[in-house]
Design brief:
Strand order of the largest sheet: 1-2
Largest sheet: 2 strands, antiparallel
Distance between the termini: 34 Å
Structural class: mainly alpha
Number of strands: 2
Order of helices and strands: HEEHH
């Protein structure tokens, strides 16, 4: 498989993982993932709280697919672990 096709495949897989995780997160957490305005809150409209979680899931899926479908040097997995750990902390 050509590199550009592989990257497009992994990007589409990340997109699908992100899109499919949103309904799962809504089902699992219910309406607790929406911050309603009122009181001391400054926003005027309901604001989603876990959108970053879906994006993180998509990024992880894309990076893991890239890692296991391409030939990288041996130190790359250590770098990928560091990148994922840093993204998880953020």
């Amino acid at each position: 498989m050509d590199n550009i096709q592989l990257y497009i495949f992994c990007a589409l897989a990340a997109y699908l993982a992100c899109s499919m995780s949103i309904p799962f997160l809504l089902y699992f957490f219910g309406h607790r993932v929406i911050d309603e305005p009122g009181g001391i809150k400054a926003h005027a409209a309901p604001t989603p709280l876990l959108g970053g979680t879906a994006i993180f899931i998509g990024i992880v899926v894309g990076l893991v697919l890239i890692r296991f479908t391409t030939d990288f040097t041996t130190g790359t997995l250590r770098s990928l672990r560091g990148l994922l750990a840093g993204a998880f902390l953020i």
